[in-house]
Inverse folding.
């Protein structure tokens, strides 16, 4: 038996738990943050659990942290002392590769320190042991989850935890001139699906306005054809590589093989969206990539996803499906044209 903390986007914990229940018999859950974070007992050893999640990554489980140790919270400096001792006992681990410290805290936790203070102290201990600390691309993460009265501490790699951000909460800096927050969704998709948009040439952006996704693809050097009956932001005026069609996507046709990338963020009925995307498949080259958000507007989101994916699979091969941190009532799929 092993214990873990699972995290999903706010309001989606029940779906993350349902997906896990379908994969593993005999799970026991306890809520840590309503609708978002839960503790679970899993009747599998660590390797089996990590392996299972690696080969069947769930859509709604955003992050997972092992609970290797539980420390009672004293509410004073003893807590930092206890965490420092725990790190000192992991000398060999600290020396084996760069470490990041992640701290998350529930509202009302008796643990009195901020993430920054905890990091400063624990990083000093790691360095004293001859280890290396980092924020970017760590080889391992020491995760501390401060519940109300207990600290749950676990070690893991970014791959095991499904993310290298605390709780999978991926943060991007808002840039000057950024048109919409929607841009973060595509940036996160690029990382989550290990895509490198600069390696594509011709993109079709369906449901493009106000233009955050189009902006990102133009910045990556692609030629972009955007379709939306709504106006694109004036900041996009004058991009020579942009063709903006102010139309409904169902009224537009293209020559076969015009694009090697399709992105679609229509926030529309999922089945209608799938129909519309399928109408555009001839315009895509063989093997073209597609990044598509699926709005979860119905009572049975897992069924909606299955239905939409099955429909799209008539022309595409599903590579990965994930609810990204920047997705609200939606999730994102990455497919390749057959
Ligand atoms: C969530 S917004 C897209 C945001 C965009 N990805 C960005 O980064 O700024 C959804 C857009 O889909 C567009 N849309 C909805 N149905 C459409 C259709 N049938 N054809 C083209 N665009 C459509 C809407 O006009 C709206 O601008």
């Amino acid at each position: 038996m092993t214990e873990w903390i699972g995290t999903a986007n706010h309001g989606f914990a029940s779906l993350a738990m349902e997906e896990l229940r379908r994969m593993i018999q005999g799970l026991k859950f306890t809520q840590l943050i309503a609708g978002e974070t839960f503790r679970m007992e899993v009747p599998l050893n660590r390797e089996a659990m990590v392996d299972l999640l690696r080969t069947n990554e769930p859509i709604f489980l955003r992050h997972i942290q092992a609970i290797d140790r539980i420390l009672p919270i004293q509410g004073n400096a003893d807590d930092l002392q206890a965490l420092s001792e725990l790190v000192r006992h992991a000398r060999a681990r600290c020396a084996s590769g760069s470490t990041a410290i992640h701290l998350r805290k529930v509202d009302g936790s008796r643990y009195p320190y901020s993430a920054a203070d905890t990091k400063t102290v624990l990083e000093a201990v790691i360095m004293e042991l001859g280890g290396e600390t980092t924020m970017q691309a760590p080889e391992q993460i020491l995760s501390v989850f401060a519940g109300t009265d207990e600290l749950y501490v676990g070690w893991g790699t970014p791959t095991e935890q499904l993310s290298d951000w605390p709780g999978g909460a991926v943060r991007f800096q808002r840039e000057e001139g950024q048109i919409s927050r929607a841009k973060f969704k595509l940036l996160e998709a690029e990382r989550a699906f290990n895509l490198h948009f600069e390696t594509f040439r011709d993109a079709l952006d369906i449901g493009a306005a106000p233009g955050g996704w189009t902006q990102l693809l133009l910045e990556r050097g692609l030629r972009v054809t955007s379709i939306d009956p709504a106006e694109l932001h004036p900041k996009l005026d004058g991009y020579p590589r942009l063709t903006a069609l102010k139309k409904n996507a169902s009224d537009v046709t293209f020559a076969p093989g015009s694009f090697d990338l399709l992105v679609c963020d229509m926030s529309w009925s999922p089945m209608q969206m799938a129909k519309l995307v399928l109408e555009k498949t001839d315009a895509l080259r063989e093997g073209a990539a597609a990044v598509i958000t699926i709005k979860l507007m119905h009572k049975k989101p897992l069924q909606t996803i299955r239905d939409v994916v099955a429909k799209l699979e008539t022309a595409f091969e599903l590579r990965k499906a994930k609810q990204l941190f920047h997705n609200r009532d939606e999730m994102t799929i990455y497919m390749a044209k057959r």
In short: The radius of gyration is 22 Å.
